[in-house]
Amino acid sequence: TRLYPEWPFAKVKHTSIELAEKVAVALIEMSPDSDAARAARCAGWTIPLNYQPVHECLKELRLGPYEDFGKVTLGDVIRKYWHLFFVIFALLLTMAGSLVVYRKLNRKIKASHEELKMELEERRRAEERIKHLNAVLHAIRRVNQLITREKDQHILIQGVCENLIETRGYHNAWIALFDDNRTLVATAEAGLGEDFRLILEPLKHGELPGCALKALGQTGVVSIKDVSSACTECPLARRYGGRGAMSIRLEYKGRVHGLLTTSVPGKFASEEEEQALLQAVAGDIAFALRNIEVEE
Questions:
Q1: Distances from the Cα of 245 to the Cαs of 48, 208, 215, 232, 236, in angstroms?
Q2: b (16+ CB within 10 A) / e for 114-127
Q3: Tens digits of residue pLDDT in 91-103
Q4: Number of C-alpha atoms within 13 angstroms, CB side, residue 183?
Q5: Is 44 exposed, middle or buried (0-12, 13-18, 19+ CB in 10 A)?
Q6: What is the radius of gyration, based on Cα positions, of the chain?
Q7: For the segment 207-240, what is each residue's pLDDT rounded down to a tens digit?
Q8: For residues 209 and 235, what is the distance between their CA atoms, to the nearest angstrom?
Q9: What percent of the chain has pLDDT above 70?
Q10: How many C-beta atoms surround the C-beta of residue 175 within 10 A?
Q11: Exposed (0-12), middle (13-18) or buried (19+): which is 74, by Cβ within 10 Å?
Q12: What are phi and psi of 99, to 5 degrees?
């Protein structure tokens, strides 16, 4: 037919090339009048003709070797582009490894940053504490100098309050002196101003704030970190603005002369060193008050 001209003679896959060549030579040398040609009723054999129309037909009908023509399978893609996939996989693996390393480094950097931040904060607090203690010590030295020369009770307690806040060791300070019947005999303040009247009137009537009552009933320092929240009944509570307070009675050899109350940053109110300094200065004030009484 026009599509399949004549009869093709093809070698199968397992036939050797040597045998195929011998057969091809024998067929081409066959003459039209040979016995073999007459028996086959053919004019002989020649080189292969053009079979392109056969290919086109098989392609269109998707038959034979063209059954999957035009189809792209995953296996085909992998076989053709395996090297590209390998490169992509290697890049992804490298990126994943880099990401893991980056996260580890980032965590280490963040931890180091937090540690450094904490160290800086601790150093800042230490410097602030040292600065505060130096101011308190300076104030105590000035109080001691005042005690050695002042013989007037009122001037003494007023000078003590002023010296305690002048170096900014304390925000404010007030002293109340009582007789043996716990009747108010003298007061002094510094740093409170007109607000001191809020507590002065109750003191005159024998009404003491909770911290004062507690301090008069014990030998140690009564410390409060946040007066505004812990002492809501105190008339001065709202004036403290989140600061702390320390109160201690002025006692010498069993004789309680009165009460000393100071305002400090809340973070320092409960520190032992801070309380020890206040206890020492309270003892010095009580000693001076005792000497004034004896001289009078």
A1: 115, 15, 12, 13, 11
A2: eeeeeeeeeeeeee
A3: 999 999 999 999 9
A4: 4
A5: middle
A6: 54
A7: 888 888 888 888 889 888 888 777 777 777 777 7
A8: 8
A9: 97
A10: 25
A11: exposed
A12: -65, -40
pTM of the model: 0.60
113: Cβ–Cβ under 8 A, 6 or more apart, which residues? Answer: none
The SS3 call for residue 226 is: coil
Residue 23 burial by CB count (10 A; 0-12/13-18/19+): exposed, middle or buried? middle
* Tokens 């996989």, residue located: 89
Helical segments of the chain, H only? 17-28, 35-40, 52-61, 74-149, 153-166, 197-204, 210-216, 227-230, 266-269, 272-295
Q: How many angstroms separate the first and last alpha carbons of the chain? A: 151
Q: Which tokens sit at 175?
A: 């002293």
Length of the chain: 296
Burial code (b: 16+ CB inside 10 Å, e: under 16) for 206-230 equals: eebbebbeebbeeeebbbbbbbbeb
Using alpha carbons, select from 15, 13, 281, 9 the residue that is nearest to residue 163: 281
Residue type at 296?
E
In this prediction, residue 128 carries a pLDDT of: 84
Q: Per-residue pLDDT averaged across 115-135, rounded?
A: 87
Q: Say which residue the tokens 């043996």 belong to.
A: 180
d(C-alpha 171, C-alpha 136), whole Å: 11
| 3-state SS, residue 246 | strand
